[in-house]
Design goal:
Layout (H helix, E strand, L loop, with lengths): L1 H11 L6 E3 L8 E5 L3 E2 L10 E4 L12 H9 L2 H11 L8 E7 L10 E2 L9 H14 L1 H5 L2 E7 L1 E4 L2 E2 L1 H8 L3 E4 L8 E3 H13 L5 E5 L7 H12 L3 E5 L1 H8 L1 H8 L3 E2 L2 H5 L9 H13 L2 H24 L1
Parallel strand pairs: 1-2, 4-5, 5-7, 6-14, 7-12, 8-11, 10-13
Antiparallel strand pairs: 2-3, 8-9
Length: 317
């Protein structure tokens, strides 16, 4: 979702964009790579100005079993090391390396205001995020590149991610998660892409940056805004015990933790947010989704995943 939007934006302004894919390359701008073996046709990437590293299995797809935890870590830490090892073989190496992480690094911190330099929290997910960021920062050694990392919050897009899933229950009645008082960091897809490009182009941007709106709001306030946009009452909630029972630690780390993060370094280095008001942001997201553009893109993406899944099963049989 993020990579597609980022690539589209860069191409529209005239940049040449290459996509590394784990699948069979279908487009002339795609290069096949393996998170274990590395990049196939590496010579095609000579002369890159920069790299955006969005690698990693989805965090919220399923409960964090022992096997799932191992996959979440390896698909970030080990895969990034493989990527850097391949890129280090280029004669002209990229000058900037932009990675992503998660604001889950801070853990559940209640009402504490968390800026970019606040120390990480504790627990498995916080530890994962620390290792994730360290993997990106190794690009300074492997490539001699400037490294910046955007710590992601919930990314709202009409074409995928959490927003289409949020819309469905709100067609009937809205609700918040847990007690609803936890701070819920979020960012629009437009600002997510804008922040990534800002980090790539601004020479002053180095280190880790909180990627969230400037004014944190509680989960209940956030979802009340969606209820107003959809003209639906927000009168119920998903109990903490039910979320924990269904999702385990995933629920605690991603849905119930209070993360009152602020994007101090993004603003200090000159980034101006496009979307800061939850109600206005939900309004344009819903408009784009309902006019068919968002729904059609979501469905096309699902069909591509199904086709690629079939191809992988056939090739392995």
């Amino acid at each position: 979702m993020i990579g597609s939007r980022l690539a589209d934006f860069l191409r529209r302004r005239g940049d040449e964009v290459w996509i590394l894919t784990r699948h069979v390359a279908e487009q002339e701008f795609e290069v096949t790579w393996d998170p274990v073996k590395g990049i196939g046709d590496l010579k095609r990437l000579e002369g890159l100005d920069g790299v955006f590293n969005l690698v990693g299995e989805h965090l919220a797809d399923r409960p964090w079993t022992k096997a799932r935890r191992r996959l979440l870590l390896e698909s970030r830490e080990a895969a990034t090391e493989t990527l850097l090892t391949s890129l280090s073989e280029l004669e002209r190496r990229p000058k900037v390396f932009v990675g992503v992480s998660s604001l889950g690094l801070f853990g559940d911190r209640g009402d504490e205001v968390l800026d970019d330099d606040t120390t990480p929290g504790t627990g498995w997910f916080a530890d994962l995020c620390v290792k994730w960021e360290q993997a990106h920062f190794a690009a300074a050694e492997y490539l001699g590149a400037r490294v910046a990392v955007l710590r992601m919050s919930v990314v709202l897009s009409p074409t995928g991610g959490v927003f289409p899933l949020m819309v469905q229950p709100f067609r009937y009645v809205g609700g918040w998660l847990g007690h609803g008082r936890q701070y819920c960091p979020w960012i629009s897809i437009r600002d997510c892409v804008g922040a990534l490009i800002h980090l790539a182009e601004n020479e002053d941007c180095e280190g880790s940056f909180n990627g969230t709106v400037p004014e944190p709001t509680s989960n209940k306030e956030w979802l009340m805004a969606l209820g107003r946009v959809m003209n639906r009452p927000v009168v119920t909630h998903a109990p903490r015990w039910a979320l924990r029972g269904a999702l385990g630690e995933l629920a605690d780390s991603l849905f119930l933790a209070s993360v009152r993060a602020v994007p101090s370094k993004l603003e200090q280095t000159g980034y101006t947010f496009l979307d800061t008001d939850a109600e206005e942001t939900f309004r344009w997201l819903l408009t784009d989704f309902e006019d068919g553009k968002g729904r059609n893109r979501v469905e096309r993406r699902r069909r591509r995943r199904r086709r690629r899944g079939t191809a992988r099963r056939q090739s392995s049989s």
